[in-house]
Amino acid sequence: MKVYMVRHGEVDDNLLGLYNLADDSLNEHGIEQAIQLREKIKTINYDIVISSPLLRAIQTASLINVGRKKIILDSRLRERELGSLGGQPLDSVDREDYWNYYSNHQYGTSESVRSLFERVYTFLDELQKSDYHSVLIVAHSGVSKAFHGYFCGLKDGKFLNRGLKNCEIMEYQLTEKPIS
After folding, report:
1. Is the distance from CB of 17 to CB of 91 less than 8 angstroms?
2. How far apart are CA 31 and CA 46, in angstroms?
3. What are the residue boundaries of the structural domains of the chain, listed by start?
4. The domain 2-173 is classified under which CATH number: 3.90.960.10, 3.30.70.20, 3.40.50.1240, 3.90.460.10?
5. Which pLDDT tens digit goes with each residue over 19-73?
6. 3-class DSSP state for residue 135?
């Protein structure tokens, strides 16, 4: 099955370099990014759209859904829970370590990278068992990092620069994993 992973369009916190504090809606630039992406993907034949339940992802999914397919919300695709980091500047933590899968450092009350990846991996393992041929996923930077880990491996565990930019799309091939 083809899986198209899309990160939502820009919100003000992205522009300001902050960890999201609220369930923000797309800003004007984010709306324009989604409209431009819609034009780029209009030839993709997908069966369904699965989106994070956060507003910025739902708005992006609605704007790019040129095929007018059903949109399903799945909470496993929500962004990494930020806890006490919400609203803080991105550089308030060691971002390299914050996105290191192998780090044991706890940043405030935020969700660990491992927990985020496990949640996304569970989603992908379940999706693999479905009858879809092609799926459009709309989620977040952290989720796109987990997708990268799932499809490309954990390697050195450093995921800071392995996520998608706003309204960037990545195609993956989801195949059955061999039974160990």
Report:
1. yes
2. 21
3. 2-173
4. 3.40.50.1240
5. 998 899 999 999 999 999 999 999 999 999 999 999 999 999 999 999 999 999 9
6. strand
